[in-house]
Amino acid sequence: MPETSPLKTELPAPFLFSQSSLQDYDECARRFQLRYIEQLRWPAIETAPVLENERRQVEGQQFHRMLQQYLLSLPADTLTRMANTENLGRWWENFIKSDLANLGKQQDANLYPELTLSAPIGRHRIMAKYDLIALKPGAATIFDWKTYHKRPQDAWMSARLQTKVYRALLIVAGSHLNARQPFAPQQVEMVYWYADFPGEPAKFPYTEAQHQRDWNSLNILVNEISAKQSFPMTSDEKKCAFCPYRSYCERGIQAGEGDELEAEISVMDVTLEQIQEIEF
Ligand code: SF4
User: Fold this and answer.
1) CB 3.0 to 4.6 Å from 32: which of 13, 25, 94, 209, for a disulfide?
2) Which residues in the chain land under pLDDT 50?
3) Which residue owns the Cα nearest ligand 1 atom 1?
4) Looking at ligand 1, which atom is closest to the CA of residue 34?
């Protein structure tokens, strides 16, 4: 292993947690340490599936920018010209034909595209940058655009840290959107809209019990990371298959043959969120 001095273990305080850093920790404590404590940029080995994923990731970023501009009232005709690849053209057409394209035309709707919320958590903070929060009287819907190649199972998305962080943080940090009153959990719903599967969004409503459970578990997780003295490598080597640190950790040079979807998500979600964190 190429390390010459011991890896740092102390988390800078305050640390700005996000769904992607928590998801990294959940999957592999060492990945969290390398990425967020050591801030080690380790070049991923370029192999065909990874290059394809990286192309898709650039298109995904462009698609997010197009939707943001559309939701900020840029005319669709102008944006159509930006859909200059096959993937972008298809995603854009799917979006424009969907009900989502009319969200801004509803008189009682207030749209907040690319909104960032953050709140204290333990000695640290937690943040989320939302693709869109759409408010109607008595209801707050969180929309997240996904450009995955395959549609994930709802149970898998439900267990992602993103689903927990985004809903919980809207309650904890979103009262300024609701006349200074926290939203009630039952007013909140999270919707993942899949650009390649426009008729099959995943919808996750919320309850008071889920909110209590999620916010408690996020606090416990943050405290656990803060107190951690060592960040071991995962024993589940499947998690290494598409990890950019796999040559550093001597867990293989080539990208794995495993789950394409996991590769796509690990590249796209983390990169998108890192860009958002830098902007924040
Ligand atoms: S290669 Fe494996 S052990 Fe190393 S950081 Fe990535 S997931 Fe963890």
Assistant:
1) 25
2) 46, 258, 275, 277-280
3) 246
4) 5
The atom number, within ligand 1, closest to the CA of 246 reads 1
CA distances from 73 to 85, 101, 104 (A): 23, 11, 8
User: 32 alpha carbon to ligand 1 midpoint, in Å?
Assistant: 9
Q: What is the pLDDT of residue 242?
A: 80
Task: List ligand 1's pocket residues with C-beta within 6 A.
Answer: 28, 30-31, 34, 233-234, 239-240, 243, 245-246, 249, 251
Tell me what pLDDT residue 106 has.
85
Q: Using DSSP, state whether 249 is helix, strand or coil.
A: coil
pLDDT at 33: 96
To test the ligand 1 pocket, which listed residue (233, 266, 270) has its Cβ within 8 A of the most ligand atoms? 233
**Could you tell me the domains of the chain?**
19-226+233-279 (3.90.320)
pLDDT one-digit tens code per residue, 56-71: 888 999 999 999 999 9
pLDDT at 275: 47
Hey, is 110 helix, strand or coil? strand
Q: Residue 117 and residue 176: Cα distance in Å, rounded?
A: 10
3-state class (DSSP) for residue 192? strand
